[in-house]
Amino acid sequence: MPTFHQLASVSPERSSSSDEIRQLYPDLTAAGGLGALLQLHLRSPGSLLSVSQPIEFIVYARIESGQRSSQVYIAANVRLFLFDFWSKGVILAHGATPDIAEVAHAINRWVGSNCATSVLASNYGFVAVKQRRSQI
Residue 44 domain-assigned? Predict the structure, then answer.
């Protein structure tokens, strides 16, 4: 399986076709976009978080509360939601899963609480904590 950084976000202009997006992500298409689909799954467990207004030219969603945020993209050629976990402008972890409900649960846990990235990674096997580079 490709790594998180090898998979790029996909826009309709960069995908092989809009049909590919509809085939890989029928739920996204039916909901009217990634933001709407993610919002639906955030509401399901009772989250009070809201998805920011989408950027029109890419398939992208952003959730933010206080100093924590997450961004979600979709992969091309395979059904996979790619997302990250930020705090105070620093990326601390990232994840990838084909299940949008799992994405919503992990993001709700991160953005809606003060949990540590180690707790996030232990609770969600598809989340990896970003390795810090040692200072030179």
Answer: yes
Q: Is residue 31 part of a domain?
A: yes
Q: Which tokens go with 131? A: 């390795």
The answer to whether residue 136 sits within a structural domain is no
Task: For residue 121, tell me if it sits in a domain.
Answer: yes
Show the domain range for 22.
Answer: 4-129
Arithmetic mean of pLDDT, 109-136: 86
Q: Is the dihedral of CA 81, 86, 65, 44 positive or negative?
A: positive
Rounded to an integer, the average pLDDT of 42-56 is 77
Q: Which amino acid is at 70?
A: S
Number of domains in the chain: 1
Q: What is the mean pLDDT of residues 74-85?
A: 94
DSSP per-residue letters across 88-127? TTEEEEEEEES-HHHHHHHHHHHHTS---HHHHHHH-TTE
Average pLDDT taken over every residue of the chain: 82
Which stretches of the chain are DSSP H helices? 18-24, 26-31, 34-43, 100-111, 117-123
